[in-house]
Design goal:
The complex is a heterodimer. In chain A, 32% of the residues lie in helices and 23% in strands. Chain A has helices at residues 32-40, 59-63, 78-95, 128-140, 156-162, 210-228, 254-264, 281-293, 307-310, 314-332, 334-342, 402-414; strands at residues 3-13, 47-52, 67-68, 101-106, 116-117, 145-149, 168-175, 199-204, 232-237, 268-271, 347-356, 361-370, 379-385, 390-396, 422-427, 432-437. In chain A, the strands form three sheets. Chain A has an eight-stranded parallel sheet, sandwiched between helices. By secondary structure, chain B is an alpha/beta fold. Helix content of chain B is 34%, strand content 27%. In chain B, a hairpin with a 4-residue loop joins strand 24 and strand 25 (480-483). In chain B, helix 2 packs across helix 5 (176-206), helix 8 (336-344) crosses helix 9 (351-365) and helix 9 (351-365) crosses helix 10 (369-396). Chain B starts with a strand and ends in a 10-residue tail after the last strand. The model of chain B has no long low-confidence stretch (mean pLDDT 93).
Chain lengths: 441, 554
């Protein structure tokens, strides 16, 4: 009988009664065939692979990460509470030492959800990984965390949430943003002035196959992880790099995914995208669970797999090596580069526009961070959307210094005079989430 | 009138039940080396002087197949396994003659690669050479498409094996390793099961006792003998089911109830919801075998009336070993039964020895003998209650896969307890007194198991799978497959499932008035390819609920 080498927890929540809309890729059917495969392979009977029922996250767990506009319940459904709850269930089991690895095979996904949430973008409303990380920080005192996003799309939501956090290393490996949604994630996106370099983007060219992907893991991702020394590694385990995925253009295989998981050794993996629901997901997930558990996955092959047909060209290999070099050079020079952008400044402001493709919302954002050597810095976000919403979000980071705390509190207090409908305060050190409502709509 | 017969480790209990309740009870000693004799003698004694034409049926619950598996006294069988890509099927090897051959079906039932006839022929020849007579054939996803198993079965037909079991006929559930184990067990216990019942039938015929024989299954339902021949493994572990069915007769129609069957070595715990027993999600586990055999969800705790009681580090330990009978009955180590002798001042045994046993524990603890007896009994009850709590927690933490079930799903909160088995009466008193439960002893607790077997309804399950994109509806377990049009609806599927279920139940010996059918799982998915709905994927599971037949009183 089979027995896992690493005791592995699994939350399987396919949300068979939830869809964005009936023909949307994020629909009831998405994990149906994965469930069939996992059940038929008897994976849940393997000794030391333990299935957990997901708990629900609380309002508070979400507010610890997001400014939801106008409020949490307006931008979520129950399924989001369960999906994020699945991630937390694995986190708790890991910290309580019930398991050594955990995989939250849940939907809906979350990695496109940013700190401010006006609605759904890229099939995501709330960020499951960020909610998990902040839960672990609050309840288990975890500090240094690495999130490695292996979804084919740039994890722009997670990047946004950790842009200013030097204690969270965010690495996203994805298909080049010039060829795929959301069109971001270039090597020069490296993080804010207090956390420069702890955002790492590795855009890979279309048709990258197992070879190029695993090269990147070995030569770029693992060395950076080794140096950062996180207490916990979380994998945003999107499965849409697969050669059969209908929304992307990569050539990754089920074996590739399992190998990636074996190399990365994530403590917790959380499912993100992946929409080849028959040809990829059943096999990728089976391989991933076996790899997490430390079991042999060499027998997993998806129908239609042909190594020669999906092999990458020499040109693609060259491009991948070049990107890796750029990423590693940025990583090594991050401190000097950080000094350069900070020099002579007390605050740094950034303006941008954010598109919510699923809900068709257009957001304009202006944020301001206090340059700080003692903490992650006071953060202020002015966000308006074409829904008519206009809010101010102020964040006091965990372990904030006194100066930043005061700056943030002043921002929040002064907000009354502003043009806002609501002002939110994330007081992380006290785990308090305050809100001022100026106008009722 | 009906007969219920339950073979236990020491006694075989037999009851004759009429419309107004049990008419006669018989206990015979079980001869484990010749179960057939115990059964026959039980049947003879219970029918002595009765007009047997009035006996509608006899339901037997035996330990025959269970014992055979546990002791490994089963026939050597051969297995042919078609796995295709995935976990190495050698991980699930059940026997020496275990042959993995080509052939692969995917999750939607599409053929990925075909069966190679010469591989099967070679495996068959090797099995023949090894003297194998019974063979199991199992393919991954054969419940989605049984054609490979059927093909292999045809090839094997030329080799004159006594019997070939196929995986798709064992269960509609997905789980390849369990399908292998279940098919293997079917083949393994087939000869012993078959011999036993032919012997019973023949002897009854010789004695002109013309009684239809039914067999109790692990799910607390019955089937007739001819049905059992194709799935003999369903008779394993029917013992706990007999007791639980016996308890149902005195269970309230509504509410959650814990059933405790307290025996000498173990206490079997089960849960009833609205007087129906909770079932295992997939199937029974027996020793190293995890199976797809439908069964009641029971937990067997190594604590009973004869459990070994001792003191370690100032703490009383009870079980899980049984070192022999209670000292009150000639044993050499103290037991909870001996504590009962002290507490209850029982006199129909060797009370002095019981007292001596408990006083040994009292000395170690430095307390009075009656205090020691109290503590032993308290500890025993506590262990049983903890196990019951754990079983309830286990049922409640079963994963679910829809938002609705997760938020609105039923939570078991038992408020009552039903106790049966040898020392039931004493336990009831103490569980009530100390723990404040609403506890009752099952009337006729000594033979409730035989009553349960006798009154159990014929049960079965049907799993239907519809894929309108492929244009098929199938229930491989029932040997049912049809092509359908894209118009085929969810209602059509439900109707087909119910229809198949009724037919199956009647064939297995149910009478039409005792068909309590229900849908236990129904899922319908729109299949969307390229932003267009291309079909429906429907999964329905129906069952005849375990319960008691009408027209008889316990």
């Amino acid at each position: 009988m089979l027995k896992a080498i690493n005791k592995t927890g699994l939350v399987f929540f396919p949300a068979f009664d939830w869809a964005i809309d009936p023909t949307h890729p994020e629909r009831e059917e998405r994990l149906l065939y994965t469930q069939d495969q996992v059940f038929e392979e008897g994976i849940l009977d393997i000794e030391d692979i333990v299935e957990y029922k997901p708990s629900l996250v609380s309002d508070m767990d979400i507010k610890r990460v997001h400014f939801c506009v106008p409020d949490v319940f307006s931008v979520t459904t129950k399924s989001h509470f369960i999906s994020a709850g699945g991630a937390i269930t694995m986190g708790r089991a890991l910290m309580e030492k019930e398991i050594q690895r955990g995989f939250a095979l849940v939907r809906p996904p979350g990695h496109h959800s940013m700190r401010v949430v006006h609605g759904n973008r890229g099939f995501c409303n709330i960020n499951n990984e960020a909610i998990l990380v902040e839960f672990l920080r609050k309840h288990y005192g975890v500090k240094r965390v690495a999130i490695v996003d292996t979804d084919c799309h740039h994890g722009d939501g997670t990047q946004d949430i950790y842009w200013h956090d030097p204690d969270t290393l965010f690495i996203s490996i994805h298909q080049d943003g010039r060829t795929l949604y959301p069109g971001s994630g270039f090597t020069e996106e490296l993080g804010g002035p207090n956390a420069y370099g702890t955002t790492v983007n590795i855009p890979l060219p279309p048709t990258t196959s197992d070879e190029g992907y695993l090269y990147t893991i070995e030569h770029v991702v693992l060395p950076i992880l080794d140096e950062f020394k996180p207490e916990i590694i979380i994998n945003s385990a999107g499965q849409d790099n697969h050669f059969s995925d209908p929304l992307t253009n990569m050539n990754f295989s089920a074996q590739g995914y399992a190998n990636l998981t074996k190399m990365l050794k994530p403590d917790i993996a959380v499912l993100e995208g992946g929409y080849s629901i028959e040809g990829a997901l059943p096999y990728v997930n089976t391989g991933l669970i076996l790899a997490m558990a430390g079991l042999d996955y060499s027998g997993i092959t998806e129908p239609g797999f042909d190594a020669a047909r999906i092999a990458q060209s020499e040109e693609v290999s060259r491009a991948i090596r070049k990107i890796g070099d750029v990423v590693l050079s940025n990583w090594r020079n991050r401190r000097e580069m950080q000094e350069k952008i900070r020099r002579g400044r007390d605050f740094i402001e950034r303006r941008r526009t954010i598109m919510y493709d699923t809900d068709m919302i257009y957001e304009m954002q202006k944020d301001e961070i206090r340059i700080c050597d003692d903490c992650a810095g006071a953060l202020k976000i002015d966000s308006s959307a074409d829904t008519g919403q206009h809010i101010l979000g102020v964040s006091i980071p965990l372990n904030a210094c006194r100066a930043c705390t005061q700056v943030a509190l002043d921002w929040f207090d002064q907000a009354e005079k502003g043009p806002y409908e609501r002002a939110f305060l994330q007081d992380r050190p006290n785990d308090e989430y305050r809100e001022k409502i100026f106008k009722h709509r | 009138m009906i007969i219920g017969l339950d073979v236990g480790g020491t006694h075989t209990d037999v009851v004759l039940i009429g419309p107004d309740g049990p008419i006669r009870e018989v206990k015979v000693l079980t001869d484990n080396s010749e179960l057939f004799k115990s059964v026959l003698s039980g049947l003879e004694q219970i029918t002595d002087g009765i007009d047997t034409r009035q006996i509608k049926r006899a339901v037997l619950s035996t330990t025959l197949t269970t014992n055979a598996i546990v002791t490994g006294q089963v026939e050597s069988v051969g297995m042919i396994v078609m796995s295709g890509p995935g976990i190495d099927p050698m991980a699930y090897r059940t026997c020496e003659q275990y042959h993995c051959v080509s052939g692969s079906i995917d999750h939607r039932g599409r053929e990925v690669s075909g069966v190679m006839e010469e591989e099967v022929t070679r495996a068959a020849s090797l099995m023949k050479l090894a003297g194998i007579k019974y063979v199991g054939v199992v393919g991954k996803f054969s419940t989605r498409n049984p054609s490979h198993e059927i093909r292999v079965e045809k090839i094997l037909a030329d080799f004159d094996f006594e019997k070939v079991f196929t995986g798709h006929r064992t269960s509609g559930n997905l789980n390849f390793p369990r399908r292998i184990a279940t098919t293997f067990l079917n083949a393994s216990v087939y000869p012993i099961h078959s011999r036993f019942f032919h012997a019973v039938k023949q002897s009854l015929a010789e004695k002109e006792l013309d009684i239809p024989i039914h067999i109790l299954k692990a799910d607390g339902g019955t089937m007739n003998f001819s049905a059992s021949i194709d799935c003999p493994s369903q008779t394993i572990l029917s013992g706990p089911a007999a007791s639980v069915m016996g308890a149902i007769a005195s269970a309230p129609p509504e509410g959650d109830v814990i059933v405790l069957d307290i025996g000498g070595t173990t206490t079997d715990i089960a849960v009833l919801i609205n007087s129906s027993p909770v079932l295992e999600p997939l199937g029974i586990s027996l020793g190293k075998y995890k199976t797809l055999i439908r069964s009641l969800k029971t937990f067997s705790l190594g604590v009973g009336g004869d459990s070994h009681v001792r003191v370690e580090n100032g703490e009383i330990l009870v079980g899980p070993m049984r070192k022999g009978p209670a000292m009150a009955y000639g044993g050499s180590t103290p037991t909870p039964t001996d504590a009962l002798f002290v507490l209850e001042k029982i006199e129909n045994g060797d009370a002095a020895s019981a007292y001596r046993g408990v006083s040994g524990i009292a000395d170690e603890l430095g307390v009075s003998v009656s205090e020691a007896a109290e503590r032993i009994f308290e500890k025993t009850c506590r262990l049983i209650l903890n196990a019951a709590d754990k079983l309830v927690e286990d049922i409640n933490s079963k994963p679910v896969y829809t938002v609705h079930e997760l938020l609105e799903g039923y939570t078991v909160r038992p408020s009552r307890m039903l106790v049966l088995g040898g020392p039931a009466h004493y336990f009831t008193k103490h569980l009530k007194k100390r723990f404040g439960y609403h506890v009752e002893t099952v009337p006729r607790w000594g033979v409730a198991n035989a009553i349960g077997a006798g009154l159990a309804r014929t049960t079965c399950e049907v799993t239907l799978f519809v894929d309108t994109e492929k244009g098929v509806v199938l229930a491989p377990e029932e040997n049912y497959a049809k092509t359908i049009r894209s118009m085929y609806s969810f209602e059509d599927a439900e109707e087909t499932a119910y229809d198949l279920l009724r037919k199956k139940a009647l064939k297995q010996g149910a009478d039409a008035e005792n068909l309590q059918t229900e849908i236990i799982e129904s899922l319908s998915f729109n299949m969307v390819r390229g932003f267009r709905t291309t079909g429906k994927n429907i999964r329905i599971k129906t069952q005849v609920k375990p319960g008691l037949i009408k027209g008889y009183k316990a």
